[in-house]
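Thread: Modeling a multi-component assembly for a lab meeting

Hi all, long-time lurker, first post. My supervisor asked me to bring a structural picture of a complex we are working on to next week's group meeting, and I have zero experience with this. I have the sequence lines for every component (369 residues in total). Could someone generate the structure of the whole assembly? Inputs are pasted exactly as I received them:
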Amino acid sequence: MNLLALRPQATLQVDLDAVTANVRTIRARTRGEVMAVVKADGFGHGQLDVARAALAGGATRLGVTSIDEARPLRAGGLTVPVLSWLNALDADFAAAVGLGLELGVPGLEHLHAVARTAPGARIHLQLDTGMGRDGAEPAEWDQLCRDARVAEQLGLVRVVGVMGHLPCADRPGHPANARGRDRFAWGLRVAEAAGLRPVDRHLAATAATLSDPLSHHTMSRIGAGLVGIDESGTVRLRPALTLTAPLVTVRRVPAGTPVGYGHTWTARRATRLGLIPVGYADGLPRLASGRAEVWVGGVRRPVAGRISMDMTVVDLGPDTAAAVGDHVTVFGPGSCGEPTTADWAGWAETLEHEIVTGLSARLHRRSSS
Ligand SMILES: *Cc1c(COP(=O)(O)O)cnc(C)c1O
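Re: Modeling a multi-component assembly
Sure thing. I ran the full set together rather than chain by chain. Output:
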């Protein structure tokens, strides 16, 4: 008997082999190191599991936003270099050094706070290469490099890296990519001239790594690509998530039956309606109501009416063989024709990133590798 078939609840299956395979695919396309970016709980796939699977595929380091986001990696026994690049000025930089983390430094205030409170810190200076979001303003860069060199000579910090980030890497050929690359090269020259010797020089995230070799430098920071998302559309990576849910009830209804809040959908013919116990509190976007489909017994079936907080109704059709207890695939890798997280992103007018990172902790999770 297949015990998997008896799963009583909505289950999110994470295919960690896919993560390992994706890292191998990406490594084959760059001579640089791969830093696995495991922020946001490993893009919603489970931070420690994704980190381990990525390291198994050849990633050599990990990246996260805040210091707190790095703690579970150390608690989980991972000893590889970890970079944390998004911290408030009053963050516990000393604790970060104690955990052996490297720190992103986006400006003079951060440099001085780190040098004052966390002597010995290994830092990556962050240059704004066109995001207009994070990283030092170009006008401040020369001063940042000079002050960092002074702090280095005083033994307070070691500048081990320089990093940038590209805003339009999902569109190969967009002029912002060349501008960002040029600004990064300029930033490296300024750092050199100030006497810094950053060995880690990293600009590219997933899309740039897969579509723009000129952006590679010594390392790529790979997040989305770990879990099968390539926004540049150039490489086929393996999605790692499958969400299944049991049919809690199956009902026969007459033509004209309105369904769900606001009665936005009405059965045009007699049909059967199936109820699955997942809704927007689990991370299914309500905006996908009226567009989304799920996979039932090898066929796509439309969602009927609005996605509710905890549940969703599926129009199974009048002749369905589906019965209470059968499992529906809400999304999967797409290899059999089932909907994917990319489909859900399209139905909800958003990015796949938002779908995968928005899945709730309420979902029962299983990992396989
Ligand atoms: C999230 C993030 C990444 C990873 O980007 P992907 O496109 O998901 O690979 C890299 N660098 C920085 C600074 C990030 O915030």
